[in-house]
Amino acid sequence: MNLSEELKKIPGYLRTNKIAVVILMIFVFIYLVNQDLFLNNTGNTLKTNNSIIIRLNDKIRTLKNITVSLTNEKNSLLNLKNQIKSLKAELKKERTKLPKTFMVSTLIKEISKSAPTSNFIIEKIDFGKPVRTLGVTALPVSISIAGGFNKSIKFVKNINSLKRIFVIDYLSVKASKKSFPDIKADIKGTVFSMQD
Prior knowledge:
single chain, rod-shaped, Alpha-Beta Plaits, 196 residues
């Protein structure tokens, strides 16, 4: 068989098989239309999926920021908790310095022990009305002394370093009228104790 002869026969085959060609063309057209619809749907689905992914990424970023913020808040609270714990321990330590009551006789003995032995006189010790605040009672104390300058200074230092918490609020010094060059001093302070 010759190739050119076979090629000449093709138009005859096509004439006799027009229906088959038309049906074949319809199938090709349907295939192409379906393919186009499928690609459009796939494109729309991809766009939708992309927008969903972008929204999810934004939510994840927001959640990460919230998590970092919450972690910072947690660390801040833990630091505050530790600070409160150390302050409570310090308060407990300081409270041990405060007696339950003033024990005035003991306080007078402590003040008397602070006095130098010679050329010094404690003229008087007066106690004011106790004031109660925040679980602590404050007792005002006034002390009048007379003696040499150096000995008076030593007494004030000793008062300030008593085992009891004694805060000196006021100190006045003037020349003694009885014996020069001695001085007369008035000390006003506060002693603290825990409330019963």
